[in-house]
């Protein structure tokens, strides 16, 4: 994965919503929760987390889809309705759906969450796995491990 100051672009399926992120990522993940399964239509969703100030929508205006609660906002293209990114309330990062990057290569999941909801027969090779979400007290160590390992890969 690239960690220099070069940018990476991405967008929705139809191209009306475009974004830009500037690596390095904070972490990469696969989420097995039922919500992600239903929104992605797959066994899990893949995400690249970047600080809010390293992400910008460059074309189009996203709309809220998925959950409409106070804890999380799922942003979609208003035309094709692709799920493009998520903003967890109170967090200073954006979860970009990895497949929405123009070049998603190198963003291998570093951790997986909500494995209690994993579909039968689905496996990953991530180094860190959690039944739910990582405990907040371990999150700093996870970020440091990603930055020292996969986050440094070029």
Structure description:
There is one protein chain. This protein is of the alpha+beta class and 154 residues long. The protein has one domain (8-146): Alpha-Beta Complex (glutathione-dependent formaldehyde- activating enzyme (gfa)), CATH 3.90.1590.10. It contains 2 helices and 11 strands, in the order E-E-E-H-E-E-E-E-E-E-E-E-H. Strand 7 and strand 8 form a beta hairpin. The mean pLDDT is 91.
CATH superfamily: glutathione-dependent formaldehyde- activating enzyme (gfa)
Rg, rounded, reads 15 Å
Which stretches of 5+ consecutive residues score pLDDT under 50? Answer: none
DSSP helix fraction: 10-25%
CATH class: Alpha Beta
Q: Summarize the helix and strand pattern as letters.
A: EEEHEEEEEEEEH
Quickly give the CATH architecture.
Alpha-Beta Complex
For the sheet with most strands, the description reads:
8 strands, mixed
Number of strands: 11
Number of helices: 2
| Terminal residue distance | 5 Å
Shape: globular
Can you list the strand order of the major beta sheet? 6-7-8-9-4-3-10-11
Structural class: alpha+beta
CATH fold-level label: glutathione-dependent formaldehyde- activating enzyme (gfa)
The whole-number mean of residue pLDDT values reads 91
**What percentage of the residues does DSSP assign to strands (E)?**
25-35%
**Total domain modules:** 1
